[in-house]
Amino acid sequence: MLAVAFPGRGRAEIIELPRPALRGPSDAIVLVTTAAIGPWDVDRFLGAGDPRVTPGGEFAGLVVETGEDVSTIEIDDLVANTVLHVGPDGKTDLFGSDALPGGHAEYVRVPDADTTLTRIAASGEERAVLAGGTAGLGVGAAGMAVAVAPLGTYTVAGCDPIGITALIALKNSVAGAGDRTFAIEGNAARKTLAASLASKVFESVDSPSPHQTDVVIVGSVRDCPGIEAVTGSVKPGGCIIFAEPYGASRIHEPGSTMPEGVTISAADWPDVDNARKIVTDLQIRRIDLTPLVSHVMPLEDVQDAYEAAAGPGAGVQKVLLKP
Fold first, then answer.
1. pLDDT tens readout for residues 17-63
2. Which tens digit of pLDDT belongs to each residue from 150-208?
């Protein structure tokens, strides 16, 4: 089969690999029809490179083979995955890591298919592919923000796809939430998109935001406007929520000045139940993730696709690959 590999820093190429086979009774094999480039994939692309790793944390496709213990997922189901795989023993791995090949390939093996895959509709595939990763993180962070301050004010720092999803979820959470939500973003196209969801969008260079809020949500740490903008935009006694589970460790430096009484927390990777809820919300049009997808490119254009996602250039949000 064809698969993406990183032979060196900032380089992506198509290589031939053996088609994956079932390894256990709970496995499934998915024929990939859509895959997304996530910030975790871009980090590997921009790193030292490792041709042995197949990237692709987010993918969707058709189930073509299942193990004998798979009961809720059937052959020919159109499915999307959760980026984080949790095994029966509690051990976790991310798809697209050293331990678990990802979906930037023609086929991918999915362990524990019943708890890793969720059925999706063909009409919403290019949005539902994000349910177990990008969208799940943004929705999860927004849910935490509303739980902390149900009638409070919010700032989303970084209007990358995760941050935009958080803005969408906040606007849909309670009446008037959009009027109490601000955003920080420097990219012109992303500012325009954020302006349709937030009360006001401030330039990243205007750090910190002129409006301190009860909660600050940080989208992808790759696109975060900076720790000063984050800490300067939260009220004393407020809360900073990182949408990525590892976000705080990557951006918060020991000794950084923090407003008095501010707490720091992070969203969890979405599990299959979270992903299924997002898929349902997409189907009933409770949330609309259409603005997140800016580029859909064939797998053979993977170098251009990764360069677009890593920029990001004007107008780039989520880049999808079509094997």
1. 999 999 999 999 999 999 999 999 999 999 877 778 999 999 999 99
2. 999 999 999 999 999 999 999 998 878 889 999 999 888 889 999 999 999 988 755 55
Output the CA–CA distances (angstroms, integers) from residue 237 to 103, 148, 190, 219, 264, in the order listed.
42, 11, 29, 21, 11
Burial of 138 (0-12, 13-18, 19+ CB in 10 A): buried
Name the CATH superfamily, with its identifier, for domain 2-132+270-322: Medium-chain alcohol dehydrogenases, catalytic domain (3.90.180.10)
Q: Is 64 exposed, middle or buried (0-12, 13-18, 19+ CB in 10 A)?
A: middle
pTM listed for this prediction = 0.93
SS3 content of the chain, % helix, strand, coil (to 5): 30, 30, 40
Instruction: Return the bridge partners of 50, or none.
Output: 6
Q: Does the structural domain 134-266 have CATH classification 3.40.50.300? A: no
Who's near 258: CB < 8 A, 6+ residues apart? 231
The DSSP-derived string for 99-145 is: SS--SSBSEEEESSHHHHEEE--GGGHHHHTTTBTHHHHHHHHHHHH
Number of C-beta neighbours around residue 303 at 10 A? 15
